[in-house]
Design goal:
The complex is a heterodimer of chains A (438) and B (534). Chain A is of the alpha/beta class and 438 residues long. Helix content of chain A is 36%, strand content 12%. The radius of gyration of chain A is 22 Å and the shape is globular. Among the domains of chain B are: 134 residues, no CATH class; 148 residues, no CATH class. Chain B is globular, with a radius of gyration of 25 Å. The chains are: A alpha/beta (438), B mainly alpha (534). Chains A and B meet through helix 1, helix 2, helix 8 and helix 9 of A and helix 11, helix 22 and helix 25 of B.
């Protein structure tokens, strides 16, 4: 694991290993509930959860959403959607290949590719035709640096380092209508590169940190600042938008805690975060874009096959996404979920039972309007001569191409806007036409 | 502007805002004299406490090679099957970054060479490296110590050369791998041209994005910089063909250990004398260099070795586009987000006339009528998270034993120290930093600091109180004034705080502060619109 970004994400997302963390969280939770009660007592005008739910029920058929999940550290796409029809796959991976039959066998998808059994909970989505994969997909830039490749995938401009904003912020800017402070939500401690830019982004801290209010959540404190920012200047406007965003997020956290108190299983890890995100989206139609990142995919050593490190990371992701779809309910029809990773890994298994940095990878696309049960790819096979630099899956589909289709046919953006979001993209790379139902 | 306003303006722009007593001190000597002093930082004695504290951070005095041997090698050598050993090695390596963060913050909070400190932060950001990329985690602090601070107010060409040869920059922008195709030194991942550094060198460091260079210039510059790389600490290395063979430790296949590096730092060493080895771990790999004649920016660079690169840096540093780019960036930082073009032009002229003397360009700006124009007083520059946090702690005069809460707050606000991923550094404009979430976090920080609820006055490991106010990453925690706090520092006195800041508040702010409960008055001053700006 020589991937500092992945480690950073992992370190920040969970401090439950800290002694006393449990007790402190319990205190924090009580304080928070008290804070919420005080908020109500103070008579602060607040968009209540009920009003919010009512808005969601009333529905807004044009409110399409896009959720992006980033697997930081470069997941091994060849063991995720397995080209079991290529004999080279088994030759190149003597100890880490996923078997065709027997214990821990892959789940056949289309007679050539199979799904890692750790992702079994996604098979209903595959069966009902709302899950698709794009194989041999990735960035046209040849870098094998996590840093650069993630940067390029988030800026949306491979090879250009000076792009100041992330492509999701540019998407937000392109969406019609007035922009609300919760239009884009990031799960994590800071605004990630992909969402950074001129438009505001709401942050929902990951894991247990999500339960932690900040000093300004104390209504007495908050009220005192109102007098300072009562004007119509830019600072006052930002202040008021910030208050509204925090009130909304607080209301959601409150609902979450009520649900947990009603005997729901204690939330943990990714399922917890996706569950929270799903509830936020289902309740708040103003959320159009959401992003979260997961680390731990940089499997240079002992990645395992049907069992082991990679499977242990994939299972909670698959389970989390499956419950996310369930929690979304009808909102799934208006949602597209993209799962991306900066590059793939070597076809050949290395000397440590792992794989090294490669090139092409697999992208997942899920959603009510996705034409799924299909693998979109220009598959060249795994013979050495057909590989990129004779070692990696080539990139035959520019990652921006399927995203552009989602932005056009799902989010309803015109081609001129999409070209501004992804300047310099090679249109029509790969074979993803029909990915989104018109 | 009144006299107080002029003094406050100078403290806010040349430095990170007043500490208690600073405003009176500036008014005593006069603003002109203060500016002149700040332009000669070597004439201002640093406080002994600060000097001693910085001196106690021992990794700050280590070269990149020493840092590698002591902190990176153990990580690499740690048994893969021994997670505890690896964890320990990683923890020790993290200490290097912690010391760099501590040094930067205490210098900014306690320093009296205000302008020099601002310029150090400015230039680090201009020549940004990202501590999250591999070896930059242990080299970013050294980069600041060795390449940035010594030249922050000197000649731009010296600064440019120091950054070009520093291992942190060579690693961050990949030039250490930049190799002439088919050269004798080609091996492994050293297998071709890498344009990354050459591009940013022109686009960000010198000419600017519209500085009149072409893709062909980028490629030619990349060829010129082939072979500009790193020594291989502790490993095998090949000597360049013209290398003095009598140095046993430089013979082909010779071994580089810590002792070798001590010799390498010796200025009498012949390899140092001909510039092939830099002071801090730079090494010119002649066998990976493309020595062919090149043409950049319409000038011919004759065939040669390392001198081609030096010549190219000369050309870039003296180019009028660079003069304009640097002047614009100064004026944007010190005067206004959209600085007056007449001022930028005058500064660029001074840059060219003084052969890139940073001090002269700054002096031209600080004596301009634009800098002192009323319209730029306390309304044109919205503080970055770094400036907001540092100026807050300065204004309160709070004791600062533990910098973690401040570093954590900066991260939470999206501006982690040494944590900017992209080579263009953080922006300093209102557009970049004013957003709803930012306001919520600033006011939360103002409340915690103003109410004495940040554990700044105790070591993080002294007792549980050190981290009681903060999560693992130094996050801000809620405050409940009704409960009994787990720890408390003496909160700043609101009247003194207002005095420190010159009591220059709008009627709206003054009224809000006066009508607030006593414990919220200092938070309100720190959270006021006036204090968001500089």
């Amino acid at each position: 694991m020589n991937d500092p970004m992945t480690m950073r994400v992992a370190n920040q997302s969970d401090d439950s290993d800290r002694p006393g963390a449990q007790a402190k969280d319990a205190i924090g939770r009580r304080q928070f509930i008290r804070g919420a009660a005080m908020l109500a007592a103070a008579g602060i005008v607040m968009i209540g959860p009920q009003a919010w739910a009512a808005r969601a029920l009333a529905g807004d058929s044009n409110r399409k959403r896009l959720v992006v999940v980033f697997m930081r550290g470069a997941v091994d796409g060849l063991n995720l959607v397995i080209p079991y029809g290529d004999s080279q796959y088994y030759e190149q991976r003597p100890t880490i290949a996923i078997a065709r039959g027997g214990d821990g066998a892959l789940i056949d998808l289309d007679g050539h590719f199979g799904l890692n059994p750790a992702l079994a909970s996604l098979t209903p989505m595959w069966q009902d035709g709302t899950l698709a994969f794009i194989h041999a997909c990735g960035s046209p830039d040849p870098t094998r640096s996590h840093f650069d490749a993630q940067d390029y995938m988030e800026s949306g401009t491979p090879g250009v380092k000076s792009t100041g904003d992330g492509w999701m912020n540019r998407v937000m800017a392109a969406l019609p209508g007035t922009h609300s402070p919760t239009e884009a939500v990031s799960l994590g401690p800071t605004v990630p590169r992909i969402l950074s830019g001129p438009l505001p982004v709401a942050n929902v801290p990951l894991g247990r940190a999500a339960m932690r209010p900040i000093p300004l959540d104390n209504p007495k404190i908050e009220q005192s600042f109102d007098g300072l920012y009562s004007g119509d200047d830019a600072l006052s406007r930002a202040y008021h938008e910030g208050r509204i965003a925090r009130q909304k997020l607080r209301a959601d956290l409150e609902q979450d805690m009520t649900a947990a108190d009603n005997g729901a299983p204690p939330p943990n890890g990714f399922s917890d975060d996706t569950g929270r995100l799903a509830r936020l989206i289902a309740r708040d139609p103003s959320i159009r874009l959401a992003f979260l990142a997961l680390g731990g995919w940089d499997t240079h050593v002992s990645q395992g096959a049907a069992k082991g490190q990679l499977a242990n990371h994939l299972r909670p992701l698959g389970d989390g996404l499956a419950s996310f779809v369930k929690d979304l309910g009808p909102a799934y029809d208006d949602t597209v979920i993209l799962v991306i990773s900066e590059f793939g890994r070597t076809v050949h298994e290395n000397g440590n039972g792992g794989t090294d940095h490669g090139h092409g990878n697999v992208m997942w696309v899920m959603g009510g309007r996705v034409r799924g049960r299909r693998i979109y790819t220009q598959w060249e096979g795994l013979a050495p001569a057909d590989l990129y630099q004779e070692r990696d899956v080539p990139v035959t589909t520019d990652f921006r191409e399927p995203i552009a289709r989602v932005l056009g046919l799902h989010m309803g953006l015109p081609a001129s806007q999409i070209n501004r979001i992804f300047p310099g993209r090679q249109p029509e790379s790969g074979n993803t036409s029909g990915l989104i139902k018109a | 502007m009144t006299g107080t306003q002029r003094s406050l303006h100078a403290l806010n722009r040349l430095g990170f805002g007043p500490r208690p007593g600073d405003l009176e001190a500036v008014q005593r000597v006069g603003v002109e004299r203060y500016v002149a002093q700040q332009l000669s930082p070597e004439s201002i004695p640093e406080p002994g406490d600060l000097t001693r504290r910085v001196a106690s951070l021992h990794t700050l005095r280590m070269t990149p090679v020493e840092l590698f041997v002591e902190f990176q090698q153990p990580v690499r050598d740690a048994d893969k099957d021994d997670p505890d050993a690896r964890k320990m090695a990683h923890r020790e390596a993290r200490q290097v970054m912690m010391e760099a963060v501590e040094a930067r913050i205490v210098r900014a909070v306690y320093g009296v060479r205000h302008l020099h400190e601002v310029m150090a932060a400015f230039w680090f950001n201009h020549f940004n490296v990202f501590a999250g990329k591999g070896l930059c985690s242990i080299w970013s602090g050294a980069f600041e110590e060795e390449a940035i601070r010594p030249h922050a107010m000197g000649r731009f060409r010296d600064l440019l050369g120091a950054t070009a040869k520093h291992p942190a920059m060579l690693f961050y922008l990949d030039n250490w791998q930049n190799t002439a195709p088919n050269s004798p030194g080609t091996h492994g991942k050293f297998d071709g041209i890498n344009e990354n550094y050459a591009r940013e060198l022109m686009e960000l460091h010198t000419l600017g994005v519209n500085g009149g260079y072409t893709q062909n210039d980028v490629i030619a510059l990349a060829h010129i910089l082939t072979g500009w790389g790193l020594v291989k600490p502790g490993g095998q290395m090949r000597a360049p063909p013209n290398f003095p063979a009598q140095n046993f430790w430089m013979r082909p296949g010779g071994f580089f250990g810590p002792f070798a590096f001590r010799r390498m730092r010796n200025p009498n060493n012949p390899a140092r004398a001909n510039g092939l080895i830099g002071q801090y771990g730079f090494f010119f790999h002649g066998n990976r260099h493309d020595s062919a004649e090149q043409s950049i920016l319409g000038r011919t660079i004759p065939a040669g070795g390392i001198e081609q690169g030096e010549y190219a840096l000369d050309l870039l540093a003296r180019n009028p586009a660079t003069a304009k780019h640097i002047s614009y960036q100064f004026a944007q930082y010190f005067v206004a987000d959209d600085p007056p073009s007449a001022l930028v032009e005058r500064m660029a002229n001074r840059y060219l006339a003084s052969d890139g003397n940073i001090r002269e360009v700054l002096a031209a700006m600080f004596t301009s009528s634009e800098f002192w124009d009323r319209r730029y007083y306390n309304n044109s520059k919205f503080k970055t998270p770094y400036e907001y946090v540092i100026s807050s702690v300065r204004a309160t005069g709070a004791p600062l034993i533990n910098v973690l809460p401040l570093a954590g707050t900066m991260s939470q606000m999206g501006m982690p120290l040494y944590g900017c991923q992209t080579p263009d550094g953080y922006k300093n404009t209102r557009e970049a930093w004013l957003n709803p979430d930012a306001m919520m976090l600033r006011l939360s920080f103002a409340t915690a600091l103003g109410a004495g609820r940040l554990p700044l006055d105790r070591r993080p490991d002294d007792d549980s109180a050190g981290r009681a106010g903060l999560g693992k990453a130094g996050r801000l925690r809620p405050i409940n004034f009704d409960g009994k706090p787990k720890f408390k520092m003496d909160p700043p006195d609101p009247a003194e705080l207002a005095m420190t800041l010159g009591d220059q508040f709008s009627p709206r702010t003054a009224e809000a502060v006066e009508s607030a409960p006593a414990q919220l008055r200092a938070p309100l001053i720190l959270g006021s619109p006036e204090f968001m700006l500089r």
